[in-house]
Amino acid sequence: MESQFRVAVLVACYNRREKTVTALQSLIDAKPGNWDLRVYLSDDGSTDGTAEAVGAMPISVKVIQGPGNWYWARSMYQAEIAIDEEHDAILWLNDDVELSVDALEAFDQLHNKNPLSILVGQFCDPQTGEITYGGMRRLGHHPFRYETVLAQHSPQVVDTMHGNLVFIPRTISMVVGTIDGDYSHAYGDIDFGLRARYDGFEILATPGFAGTCPQNPAIRHASIRERLKAMHSPKGTPTSSQIRFLKRHGDVSWPIYFVAPYVRALLTR
Question: How many CB atoms lie within 10 A of CB 208?
Answer without folding.
Answer: 15
